[in-house]
Amino acid sequence: QVQLVESGGGLVQAGGSLRLSCAASERIFSITTMGWYRQAPGKQRELVARITSGGTINYAESVKGRFTISGDNAKNTVYLQMNDLKPGDTAVYYCNFYVWPSRNYWGQGTQVTVSS
Prior knowledge:
Distance between the termini: 40 Å
Number of strands: 11
Number of helices: 0
Largest sheet: 7 strands, mixed
Radius of gyration: 14 Å
Shape: globular
Order of helices and strands: EEEEEEEEEEE
């Protein structure tokens, strides 16, 4: 079965940068949306950024101007460049591929910790 493999998390000081990567273990056809979610302890999972197959991009208000999502639908890869990281960005980050109408694939999660 398909797995999404993530990398790039780690510990960084406030103001630093990290780049997260995600790739599917097998080819997925006709991906509708690729995105990144995060979940901090005691909080609900939230959408960080997503990009559609047509190139439309959405960001959470809290990361606008600091994070950039990019990807290649044909290569089943998605990236999240995170700049000017803040302690509030600390969370487990999950990549997600959505295929219309009802299929979702999730990464295993990668920890991002930002120290003050």
